[in-house]
Q: What sequence folds into this?
């Protein structure tokens, strides 16, 4: 079984400041890792994914994440946030041979002027 | 926009009733998964269909059932609705062999009174 822990339920940040949203996971098998974003009253949009290869992955809207196998982490970062980045962010894992995404509880990013 | 469409967007039912939610997968995708997202929580996997057969199931009772049609559209049926079934129901489509990357629709908001 897998589990995902998003260490911060809420992250307030000022516009143009950097941000890091933290995600740790546990799994007895190899997994793929994802970050999704959910804007108010909308579904989930895929931000980025780690499947294999380089541990630093870049996604849409200027976000990037780094896979750290030894620390079982997959933290999401953006060097300069915009008001429009205000949303709920979900980290998720799926076993390499599995079919079910296992999500964390989400981190609410609030960007203010 | 992912190309995954869900209907209806909102639905209100009373306890004990039955409901059917619909999903149209993204073109070229032949798996469909359903997730339940309670307020303030991450999505929980209900089940996945592939080639019209249930491919895997999460920890949901049998009153949650589904169908996948030859055109890869899908239905989620819930019988004997309970108050705790109130949630956002998300449909996701994907292709086997693409590392189980799943693309989500906007969801159906179900309220059970």
A:
């Amino acid at each position: 079984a897998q589990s995902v822990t998003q260490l911060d339920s809420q992250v307030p940040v000022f516009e143009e400041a950097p941000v890091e949203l933290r995600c740790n996971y546990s799994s007895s098998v190899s997994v793929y890792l994802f970050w999704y974003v959910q804007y108010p009253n909308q579904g989930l949009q895929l931000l980025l994914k780690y499947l294999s290869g380089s541990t630093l992955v870049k996604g849409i809207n200027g976000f990037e994440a780094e896979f750290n196998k030894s620390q079982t982490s997959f933290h999401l970062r953006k060097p300069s946030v915009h008001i429009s980045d205000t949303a709920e962010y979900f980290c998720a894992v799926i076993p390499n041979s599995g079919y079910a995404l296992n999500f964390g509880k989400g981190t609410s990013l609030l960007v203010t002027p | 926009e992912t190309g995954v469409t869900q209907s209806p967007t909102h639905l209100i039912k009373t306890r004990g009733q039955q409901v059917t939610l619909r999903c149209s997968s993204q073109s070229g995708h032949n798996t469909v998964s359903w997730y339940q997202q309670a307020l303030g929580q991450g999505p929980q996997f209900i089940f996945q269909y592939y080639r019209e057969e249930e491919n895997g199931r999460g920890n949901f009772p049998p009153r949650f059932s589904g169908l996948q049609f030859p055109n890869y559209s899908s239905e989620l049926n819930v019988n004997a609705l309970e108050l705790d079934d109130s949630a956002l129901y998300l449909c996701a489509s994907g292709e086997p062999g693409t590392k189980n990357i799943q693309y989500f629709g906007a969801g159906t908001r179900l309220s059970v009174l």
Summary: The two ends of chain A are 41 Å apart (CA to CA). The interface with chain B takes residues 4, 32, 34, 36, 42-46, 49, 51, 90, 92, 94, 96, 98-106 of chain A (CB under 8 Å). Chain A has a mean pLDDT of 94.
